[in-house]
Amino acid sequence: MRPYPVILSLLCLGALALLIAPASLLAGPTAPPSEPMTFETEDQEVRYQKLIRELRCTVCQNQNLIESNAPLANDLRRQISLMIRDGAESQEIVDYMVARYGDFVLFRPPMNATTYLLWFGPIAMLLIGLSALGMILYRRRSQVGAGDLSEEEQERLRRLLGEGDGGKA
Questions:
Q1: Among 36, 98, 147, 169, who pairs with 162 as Cys (CB 3.0-4.6 Å)?
Q2: Per DSSP, what are the bridge partners of residue 64?
Q3: Which tens digit of pLDDT belongs to each residue from 112-130?
Q4: Do 34 and 70 meet the contact criterion of CB atoms below 8 Å apart?
Q5: Could you tell me the end-to-end alpha-carbon distance of the chain, in angstroms, rounded to an integer?
Q6: Which long-range contacts (CB under 8 A, 24 or more apart) does 123-130 make?
Q7: Is the dihedral of CA 51, 57, 58, 61 positive or negative?
């Protein structure tokens, strides 16, 4: 076997790594650091913190707004703070976000016709899986069956159990 294909593969991988490395070094952070939000009252700060923990970043999908560094999350945090400073109630802000981004922006989506699969899908999948397992086990039990042993099988069983020579093994 000639080592040329292995050496050629290693050279190609090295060249690819040299091409990718500078690109990854030039890539900056995903979003500029957000400025700290200041509020007039402690209540506004508490409402802001609660809302950015309850609303999902639509870019990151599994992060709330406080955890996300996406530029959209920064914009949404800024929008929420502006709405709170302007006197909007928490439910108004949530309604605004849902109207703009849909129920997906909520970590706890409401139960309605569009989210039934989300709410009941895991239970349905569990029931389907348990039903399939039950059917498989039932069919296997009926296929195996507990038929009588032949004379030869009974004699072999007695020998194995030691009953043929007075119970001594």
A1: 169
A2: 56
A3: 887 788 788 999 999 999 9
A4: no
A5: 59
A6: none
A7: negative
Domain boundaries, the chain: 42-110, 112-144
Please answer whether residues 93 and 53 qualify as being in contact, where contact means their C-beta atoms are separated by less than 8 angstroms: no
3-state SS of the chain is CCCHHHHHHHHHHHHHHHHHHHHHHHCCCCCCCCCCCCCCCHHHHHHHHHHHHHEECCCCCCCECCCCCCHHHHHHHHHHHHHHHCCCCHHHHHHHHHHHHCHHHECCCCCCHHHHHHHHHHHHHHHHHHHHHHHHHHHHHHHHCCCCCCHHHHHHHHHHHCCCCCCCC
- Report how far residue 80's alpha carbon sits from residue 87's, in angstroms, rounded to the nearest whole number: 11
Q: List pLDDT tens digits, range 34-93.
A: 566 778 889 989 999 999 999 988 888 788 888 888 888 889 999 999 999 999 999 999
HSE, CB side, 13 Å, CA atoms: give it for residue 109.
17
Give the residue from 56, 143, 60 showing the smallest Cα distance to 98.
56
pTM of the predicted model as reported, rounded to 2 decimal places: 0.53
